[in-house]
Amino acid sequence: MKVLANDGISQSGIDALEKGGYEVITTTVAQEQLINYINEKEISVLLVRSATTVRKDLINACPSLKIIGRGGVGMDNIDVEYAREKGLKVINTPAASSHSVAELVFGHLYGLARYLHNSNRDMPLEGDSNFKGLKKAYAKGTELKGKTLGVLGFGRIGQATAKVALGAGMKVVAFDPFLDKVNLELDFFDGQTVNFEIETISKEDVLKQSDFITLHVPAQKDYVIDEAEFNMMKDGVIIANAARGGVVNEVALVKAIENGKVARAALDVFEKEPKPEIQLLMNPALSLTPHTGAATNEAQDRIGTELASQIISILG
Question: Of the listed 70, 108, 244, 264, which one is catalytic?
Answer without folding.
Answer: 244
